[in-house]
Amino acid sequence: MKTRLFTPGPTPVPEETLLELAKPVGYHRSAEAKAILKEVSELLKEVFRTANPVVTLTSSGTGGMEAAVTSLLAANEKAILLSAGRWGERWKGILKAHAANTHIVSVPYGKAVTPEMLATALKEHPDAGAVFATLSETSTGVGHDIQAFGKLVAATPAVLVVDGISGLGAMECRTDEWNIDVVVSGSQKAFMLPPGLAYVSVSEKAKKKMDATSVRGFYFDLRRSLAKIAESDTPFTPANTLIKAQLVSLKRMKAEGMEALWARHAKVAAATRAAVQAMGLELFAERPNNALTVIHVPSGVDGSGTLKAMEKTHGYKLADGQDDMKGKIWRLSHMGYVDAFDVLGAIAALELTLSATGFKVTVGAGVAAFQKAMAG
Ligand SMILES: *Cc1c(COP(=O)(O)O)cnc(C)c1O
Fold first, then answer.
1. Which residues line ligand 1 (CB under 6 A)?
2. I need a labelling partner for 195 at 20 to 30 A (CA). Which of 72, 242, 246, 333 fits?
């Protein structure tokens, strides 16, 4: 049986990228390695939609988040955190570890933080040095109106820092146009690569703030990475095999084109939502994003057991809810190297699994709705 990965990280990796990963390891200070990093950095700027530098860190996405906090905030400095789920809580944990004075604006799981909530927080805390937000809240499937957040924060001295780990490369995000000062992303979500790299873009405003802050980190001091990336180099030994492979996947993304890539994700996401509803299931996110679809487990259905059965019988691996959400939601990723027909198979497998467990579903209803949405 084939196993098929539909988790919102890691995600499937294209064959040509896997082949690149099979090649011998090179020396990371060679002219060839620098040329590769230079090309990767240029292509990353295109994905981020920024003219500012994007640094590549050897860490998972959380390392990029920690780098942003460590480099931007002084001890006890005030920060505003917009939290809509587990990944907002990840910001909270990092901010706490760095002794930030954090004002938290939070909404229940499944809801989105609104621009109005941010406007109020900015009014109440004009001394905040930074605002932390999440593009795609992967724990609930919610997407945030980052463009509106950017407009609000740009009018203040604060910098806007966005966790774009699961959103970037799947959904529209225009770093410069939307006034986002720092965007963090990671290799194992929409970038079609295994886990291991984090990417961080830094605006002029953020750079100035870093230069005026006594940075408390060493490995994650972004000023170090920024100084080196200007010479297409890194301060420490990078995961150079992953960087070489990232070039292959980035070329694939460029060949498709960013607008086409966003449109493909939007279309598949809309078709998935139509299929879920046609199966008599409910969407979990009030403002769903295009990277993944999160489904409410219907009452009377064993959420975790259904996912296990689906994997065992059909080879489809979806993600359970995290922590308190375990057994309550199903998370189906459609970001990166996943096409409409891959997702169509996942819908078919979910229908068969639900039908086998006795849940009342018309087999084929979700598949038909998906097809209709794709044709429309
Ligand atoms: C996956 C994810 C993270 C965590 O990234 P790691 O690579 O596991 O450190 C953070 N934020 C969001 C939105 C994510 O989807």
1. 9, 60-62, 87, 90, 134, 136, 138, 163, 165-166, 186, 189, 195
2. 72
